[in-house]
Amino acid sequence: MSSKINLQTCEYARKSSIFQDNQLIYIKKEKKMANDNHLFPVPCYNGTMLKQDYYNDFFDFGQQKINFSFFELHLPDDDPVYTLKKVMEELDFSGLLACCSDQGRTGYNPIMLYAVVTYANMRGVRAVDRIVELCERDLAFIWLTKGQRPRRDAFYDFKGKKLTGEILDELNYQFLLRLKKEGLITLKELFIDGTKIEANANRYTFVWRGSLNYHLAGLLDTIDSLYTAYNTLLHENGYGPKYDLGDARMFVVEGMDKVRRVIGENRKRKLTKHKKISNNTVIEIDGCSPLEILKLQNNLKKIADGEGIGFAYGKGQRKPELQKLYEELETCGTRLMEYKGHFEIMGKGRNSYSKTDLEATFMRMKEDHMLNGQLKPAYNVQIAVENYFIVHSYVSNDRTDYNTLIPVLKKHRKAFGEELEAVTADSGYCCEKNLSYLKENGIKSYIKLQDHEKRKTRAYRADIGKYYNMTCAVFEDEPYYICHDGRELRHMRTESRVQDGYTQTFEVYGCADCSGCEHKAKCLYKYDAEKNPDRNKVMKINEHWEELKEGSNENIQSEEGILKRQIRSIQTEGHFGDIKENENFRRFHYRSEEKVYKEFMLYAIGRNIMKYHRFLHHEIEKYEGKKEAKTA
């Protein structure tokens, strides 16, 4: 009888609201509990009584015996929230407060919201819904908010309207100046690297420049035929003199000739099953104006009104030829406007964009879930690091790293003046424009060359067709080269080429007569004795670029350069490895370049303060090179 009462009591306890977090106690079977007597120090033969005793030890009349009063709970003394409080006490938030209005209802303190968002990023939390939940349940967040419970709209309004990229940069720079005073950083050298992070855009919403060029070429051919039909209509019916209308002239689009040549070549390659050539020619779309087509439509409307020609609409109605021409021009004008809008969004610096995030560019990612090398919409994220701290971050939609170095250096100069002395980066940043900028501003370059590994090979030193394996001599202040066969290559002319707004200068050297040389097959590039037996050696040398490369190569080969390359690979690539693998930061939550930058900058500030916390508690130390192993 007592056993039956105990079972009813346990069943009543199960149905009661026992836990505050809605957890339920699942009563195990009596037979299983009776067989687990080896878990207890004394023999127990009544499983029902055992369950009841444990229940009475943990509960008292349906209430949990643990006291949840916050006055009896405390945070650990080494919790990172105390480091955050220490950092924020010395920051100047005047820029943030200037973006907040003092009119209307009093909202949440923006400094408190910034502290909450920063601490969330220190903990690796970026989702707003998760931050709202932590403000209700996590003791550190409750301590920061002083018991307030901001909702998701408060955080979205704060991050979207009040918090800007400039404010985040300013707050980060204030923190970095504090680190400089404490001797953790010097701000005199930067270690730069970049990675690609997927944008918050649909994967198959791409717009390609090559596809636009292909369809635009067909559209322009159609418009040209409509212009011819328009002129024929005027001449055959005498509408030109009657309504004072002139002939229509087809507009010229610069670059379309090259596009058409590539289209023709690709059609031939398709027949022979060869790989197609990319058709990413940047054309001057401003030359084709849909307003010209609209003028022709107005002229046709004028003729129809004057001749009493009515436009027919509806099923079974026969349209006049003038109306057909009018509607075809309208269709072509609409398509032309659409293509022009695509080109304006894309700009001249990239060949694709996403329809759901117009500023994201399709890039080749390492995460390839379909294993076919597909492109995904992404952003190119750059960080400049010193002693594990992210000094600068830069978000770009450029697929390569060539055009991202100078903007980062300009940010550093604007924030801290001319303190920068050295820059270390990988070969992705090695170009004449970047090395020239470093030399002009007195910054020492430790940038790895693109042919760094190739220079170590025997084939590099044995290539007799390259200028660096020839003998250089000077005659009457004019340099010339002597080839492997002993013939002279004299200076012929100077050429220049503009690339990405930067002008490159080439000196052209050539041999007057290479006939009879037995080394022509090795010296001349793609030499064919049957097709062009009289071909002579000609080579172009960018002397300024070669001088910059040799200077940077000499720097990275020194002991200091080797150490700096080690530090760069450990610190910058270590950041990205931690961000992507440990923190699972592989995709942005927001769209547009501005919001993406704010999201990553908040994350970078959180990482910086967390690194500072670890330095204070001696969990990490400044890396000064590989330590020699102690001998036994």
Task: Provide a short characterization of the protein structure.
By secondary structure, this protein is of the alpha+beta class.
- Low-pLDDT windows of residues: 1-47
Q: Shape, please? A: flat
Write down the Rg. Answer: 36 Å
What percent of residues adopt helix (DSSP H or I)?
40-55%
Q: Could you give the count of β-strands?
A: 15
Q: Note the beta-strand portion.
A: 5-15%
The total of helices stands at 22
Distance between the termini: 75 Å
Most strands sheet: 6 strands, mixed
Oligomer: single chain
Compute the average pLDDT: 85
Structural class: alpha+beta
List the helices and strands and how they pair.
Layout: H1 2-15, H2 30-34, H3 47-58, E1 59-60, E2 63-64, H4 80-88, H5 94-98, H6 110-122, H7 128-137, H8 139-145, H9 152-162, H10 165-181, E3 189-198, E4 206-208, H11 209-237, H12 239-243, H13 256-271, H14 290-307, H15 321-346, E5 352-354, E6 361-364, E7 375-386, E8 389-396, H16 405-416, E9 422-425, H17 432-440, E10 444-447, H18 458-462, E11 471-475, E12 478-482, E13 488-499, E14 502-511, H19 520-523, E15 538-541, H20 543-557, H21 559-582, H22 593-616
List keywords for this structure.
14% strand; 6-stranded mixed sheet; alpha+beta; 632 residues; 5-stranded antiparallel sheet; disordered N terminus; flat; 15 strands; 22 helices
